[in-house]
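Changelog-adjacent note: as of this version, every example in the card shows the full chain rather than a window. The one below runs 329 residues end to end.
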Amino acid sequence: MSEQFQAYQIGKNEDGQRCKLTQLDDSDLMEGDVTVRVEYTTINYKDGLALTGRSAIIRKFPLIPGIDFSGTVIESGHAGFREGDQVILNGFGVGEVHSGGFAQKARVSGDWLVPMPEGMDMRHAMAIGTAGYTAMLSIMALEEHGVRPGDGDILVTGASGGVGSIAVAILSKLGHRVVAATGRMNEKDFLTGLGAADVIDRAAFAEKPRPLGKELWSAAIDVAGGNTLANVLSQLRYGGAAAICGLAESINLPTSVAPFILRGISMYGIDSVMAPIARRKTAWQRLAQDLDKKLLDELSFDLEFTDLPKAAQDILDGKIRGRAVVKVP
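Full-length structure tokens:
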């Protein structure tokens, strides 16, 4: 028997893209072998672009947005999951080409789901979301490069945002000395509370980058791209590394090969959308282990399901600090 459920749906006509909160039924769900009762979701920068139509994030219409969700399996034809299992989903084109988490129900491929790790609940999973999962993928890349506590300062750009704030919290708990760069210096107390040893203004990275700057950072996690990243790369110490996971400033990179050749630095691209499931499981297990839940509660806040459209505009305008957690009604 078909069951109705509440969802945001984005359609498109000759006048453009339009989002509405509506009632759908099971026939509106897309193909998949696992059906999930969505319990929690969140809002990311990409969701903000999708809901506002500011960028062509959604490539199939009509579509339910939302690139993240946590929930309970209510029906499964997948060998890895059964009714009652708690699961997490990030990426794999969900919320872009496949209906996502801004709904009471979702049907997806079981190959896209991660079992809820021990020690984590569904709310905390969405307080982390794609932002925190991306932060952990970035930290794992730096660790695999050989970055260890005591090697020197690690710079985190965009530190007041979702990726940056969770990266600061995890790195500091792991024993690293973290320097947080932000355009919102009024958030200094918030960032030091997460464990940042120092907070600096992102304006320090606005000048035209030199081929080689002063060696300041043993490693970096960058969400900005553009001029900021070019300056960061020029300031990495010999043998250092940067994990690149965003383009909030620009997709361009106005730099040279000088720091790569003369200082032997490395740059790691972090893809959270299509990362293999085994690496996802490792990242989520690490998040359950290495992220202080009290700090996670401090950097997250509750957002009403009906407030998602306004939050979409707020996140694009840089008005959201930390992580928004949405309880799906």
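Structural remarks: Residues 11 and 62 are 5 Å apart (CA to CA).
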